[in-house]
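Write out this protein's structure.
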Amino acid sequence: MTTTPTATEPAEEPQPTPALPWADLAVEHYQLLRLAALPIDRATGPRPLRYVQFGHAERHDTEHSLLRMHIQLPGQKVHKGQNRLDIRVDHREKRVRIGDEHGLQLEPVNRGLGRFLLAQAAQWLKRKWPGYQVDEFKLPSKDALQEESRLRRDHCLRGAGLEVEYEEGQVLKGHTVATTAGQLPTTWNSERVQQVGILEAAQLLQQAEQQLQETSAQLRERDERVAKYQREDSGLRFTITCLVAFALFQAGLLIWIATR
């Protein structure tokens, strides 16, 4: 009995993920941020006064909107995707997606920048689409490898209006809870992160320049005093040397007279 071979159906090829609009969008508007000096943290180390640059840009069409925010550090480079937060809006579904699967990676850590960026996103969404749903998203497990890091991350998210839930007994498998854009708070700790306007930044530069000039003048005055003291010291040394030589000559002369 012969059997007729059956044709095997070709395996379905994975569908390529459609490219997100404005993937290469660069930030266009900039502002100076002042990170206040804070006490040394046991986990993250020193937290001195710092100034960083906050940049943002947005794009819109009939189906999508994008807000891209970026933190730039003077004299320091970060990895691609770090210090950046994208807020993507789907107008057909009336949904909002915050960030990506890699989470929000910020440098410097524990300085209030996460709350600041999320507050900026909340202000943007509330102003335009307060009724849209903010989708839940998974939290990267690497952020929960250390308990302090996980607690700090969860505190930031909850402060920004995003509740965090975990699978039972699995602290590495967490996710946020869906909410609406109108429920997100628009405030952050302004004592930690302060927005500096152009005029204020110019005033800071002017004050720094004045302080630099004053310091330079003080250094020149100190150098002049040191040079004067050095000249006086050289004169005193010469005088002392002459007196010693004269005293030795007189002592020798007296000894010679006494022995004659």
